[in-house]
Amino acid sequence: MSHPRKAIRQHVAALLTAATVAGAKLAGANVFDSRVRRLPTSSLPALLIYTRSDKADGMVSDAPRVYLRKLELAIEVAVAAANMADTLDDLTREVEILLENDEALGGLGECTYSGTEIELDGDSDPTLAIAVMTFTVEYEDDIKTAVADDFTGADVVWNLTTLPDEQNEAQDTITVTP
């Protein structure tokens, strides 16, 4: 069984890959559900989707254990263009709109925008403008563990403490057949 984080990243990647703005693909085929990626100029603009943290925020149920989790989802937008700031602002706005319009992520969890950090990478050639957008995804994680059901029967003895004789008043044998 794969982790819900994987399904969330894949859903967001599919959403952003299919997105069009004014008839053109948002980032074309340059949407990756991984952070580890070299970005040649031909791959720009690019969107990289990854998770930063995943924290349990209590339990919804004890048996079976269902955790309420908060996932920090990052979408890194990288551009290299003459008007980097404008291109970066336009792309990040489109990503926000797309995720706001699919806030339940296809039923996988509740997604809310947390913030954006913007930086320039002057060490790369060409210079890159990078925005790391952060979203919080709250989801329930149903940890299902296999339990051996080896219950086959029980002997039940009834001793009514209201009677002074301290004798067993009844005895039942319960047999469970698989």
Number of helices: 2
Q: Going by CATH, what is the homologous superfamily?
A: Phage minor tail protein U
Oligomeric composition of the shown chains = single chain
- Catalogue the unreliable spans: none
SSE order in H/E notation?
HEEEEEHEEEE
Number of domains: 1
Determine the mean pLDDT: 85
Provide the gyration radius in Å: 27 Å
Shape: rod-shaped
Strand order of the largest sheet: 3-4-5-7-6
Describe the structure concisely for a colleague:
With 178 residues, the chain is an alpha+beta fold. The chain has a single domain (4-142), classed as Phage minor tail protein U (Alpha-Beta Plaits). Helices cover 19% and strands 42% of the residues.
Give your account of this protein's structure.
The protein has 178 residues and is α+β, with helices and mostly antiparallel strands. It has a single domain (4-142), classed as Phage minor tail protein U (Alpha-Beta Plaits, 2-Layer Sandwich), CATH 3.30.70.1700. Helices cover 19% and strands 42% of the residues. The chain has helices at residues 4-18, 84-101, and strands at 20-21, 24-25, 31-32, 46-61, 66-79, 110-121, 128-142, 153-158, 170-175. A five-stranded mixed β-sheet has the order 3-4-5-7-6. Strands 1-2 form a two-stranded antiparallel sheet. Strands 8-9 form a two-stranded antiparallel ribbon. The protein is rod-shaped.
